[in-house]
């Protein structure tokens, strides 16, 4: 079955064929728990209704067609960072289909639908389903549904509002839930062609990097549309890392927000130096462009007396003695020199694979001043991943090892950004590292 044409009709919310669902108290409590992950009362209430709608749809389908499973784990209402920004249920899976659930009030000639589930391929569904939720009675009702291809054919009639939404006439929705059930049973997903999801290129975020740095630490409440244009909003909504960072910032889970955001944007927008082949004296174009220089492995040193190599070996020996850390002789080694706060600084990097089976790698970073001078007070070395600032170090002149160093371990698909900065982050130099075979 490839298509079941549905003609236009007038929708009467007081006279629809079936679709009512009773909500058990246990499921209501489940919705309440999901809503409690939000910050403001308005968003808690919105998520509560959306969660009830998702639960009701699941119960309705289980009762009418138990062979079609509903999967909620990837839908936005079950991911608090997305529920924070998208006011409907998106990416709900029913069998092979994507569903978007829209909680509609009693009546009306139109219903508000966010642009995200109409214009962004990441969230566009095969079917939009309207539900009415009467939370006090613990009852929900399916009021209608609309196929994406039918909506797309009428898209020229839509005019976006300032709050990133469209008003869809309820007359466009089929009020018969049995027709939706028939589609879910018999239609092939390919019959409703969805737009392809495209990767978000780093340049898109780069264009608004300065604005995001200024905005996001202040963005504690409100909606994105109040601060960004739609085009800027698209860059955020299609970046899981930015969506997650907004949620965590609003929850107060991130310390030193400015430094974290700066590092995150580096990870999202800058090309990484691939260190996988450093041990074989191979450096990629990104590393060359950033003036990284490779050093031979210690077992190949022989009589090399190059200053960085001599200093590096001394520092490594000191680290290994003090921390009882063993650095493999075959580890890749390199360094980069730059001027920071009128001081010539040298950043060393050592990388090696920890486990082929576990697919893990290690990155050791060491900071020193060039020319025998000491690092200026306040200069710091920090390493971050996409989730947080992992560690930050400053020089400790009185210690046996005055060189700040950091070691991190990650999976092969994980990147790290190393940043050398002044105390106030007024000046900084960053490098993104990856292990990509």
Structure commentary:
Residues 1-17 and 299-305 have low confidence and may be disordered. This protein is α+β, with helices and mostly antiparallel strands and 437 residues long. The protein has 13 helices and 18 strands. The protein has helices spanning 25-35, 41-64, 80-83, 116-119, 148-153, 177-186, 202-207, 209-215, 230-237, 240-250, 257-269, 285-289, 307-323, and strands at 20-22, 70-71, 89-94, 97-103, 110-114, 127-134, 139-147, 165-169, 273-274, 293-295, 332-340, 343-355, 360-369, 380-384, 389-393, 405-411, 416-421, 428-434. Helix 1 runs antiparallel to helix 2 (41-64) and helix 10 runs antiparallel to helix 11 (257-269).
Order of neighbouring strands in the sheet with most strands: 1-7-6-4-3-2
Low-confidence stretches: 1-17, 299-305
Secondary-structure content class: alpha+beta
Percentage of residues in helical conformation? 25-40%
End-to-end Cα distance: 45 Å
What is the overall pLDDT average? 88
Q: Main sheet?
A: 6 strands, mixed
Secondary-structure blueprint:
Blueprint: E1 20-22, H1 25-35, H2 41-64, E2 70-71, H3 80-83, E3 89-94, E4 97-103, E5 110-114, H4 116-119, E6 127-134, E7 139-147, H5 148-153, E8 165-169, H6 177-186, H7 202-207, H8 209-215, H9 230-237, H10 240-250, H11 257-269, E9 273-274, H12 285-289, E10 293-295, H13 307-323, E11 332-340, E12 343-355, E13 360-369, E14 380-384, E15 389-393, E16 405-411, E17 416-421, E18 428-434
Parallel strand pairs: 4-6, 9-18
Antiparallel strand pairs: 1-7, 2-3, 3-4, 5-8, 6-7, 10-11, 11-12, 12-13, 13-16, 14-15, 14-17, 17-18
